[in-house]
Amino acid sequence: MQNDLVAALDIGGTKIAGALVDSDGRILVRAQRPTPAQEDGETVMRAVSEVVGELTASPLWARAGALGIGSAGPVDASAGTVSPVNVPGWRDFPLVERVRAAAGGLPVELVGDGVAIAAAEHWQGAARGHDNALCMVVSTGVGGGLVLGGSLYSGPTGNAGHIGHISVQLDGDPCPCGARGCVERIASGPNIARRALESGWRPGPDGDTSAAAVAEAARAGDPVALASFERAAQALAAGIAATATLVEIDIAVIGGGVAKSGDVLFAPLRRALRDYATLSFVQQLTVVPALMGTDAGLVGAAAAALGSRAGAAAAGVGG
């Protein structure tokens, strides 16, 4: 069947991944390049064009009816531009226009990477079957996306659900975003490690000071490492409960490197959530690990493109 596939791009500070994806979320063709994140904007775009070029060279390309992009942010879907914090050469970069040209004029849908992951988890992962969900990534940063009323809600610019920059500590540490006490400033991997080190935790003989090393120490019972994870869990619980209270989600899905800590994170998070999600309509809120893994960004970008095509068809403007 013609146009039964969509193309997808997942653009981050480390890699630019591309795929052709079918309507069941299966990845049929892949392409990837390292992100030349510290180079100028045109050099980064060249890597994107190479990934798109690999996809267009596939015999399956003729079946692609749209292209979805999940990009590190901030993004501005209304303007078709991106300004990723971790790609300094791109500031208000006209990514949609450039990708559309590279893809031979296909319709292009742009969302932030957190929104893309929410789309993936709702379509194929841990939020499947839930009409109202928050899906999060807790890693080097903290991002997220929302599903409301059964549909992905990306907001006017494609950034809705960015829970990492909800302030949960009014007089907290300054965050690079300009605010204070943001969830990300407390709960991201680097900040979990920073807090542990500042509180007296010391790494083992290998000198590893990552959040994964702190998690290992916490599993072994180190009280300082445990306290750092409990603080992160409290910040996440406060942000999740605030979101649930505002828009009535019933599930929060958490992925990313920090979520791989398992019960070191999830046990104190579920305890703390009981202290924050207290109103009757949020008391049944559950928190679960993400299921989609490293393909979440690609599958979510594909889901966003499929959703856009379905919306256009329903409005009678194409299919």
UniProtKB/TrEMBL annotation:
Its EC number is 2.7.1.60. GO terms for molecular function: N-acylmannosamine kinase activity. It comes from the Bacteria. It holds the Pfam family ROK. It is an enzyme of class 2 (transferase). Keywords: Kinase, Transferase. InterPro entries: ATPase_NBD, ROK, ROK_cs. Belongs to the ROK (NagC/XylR) family. This is N-acetylmannosamine kinase.
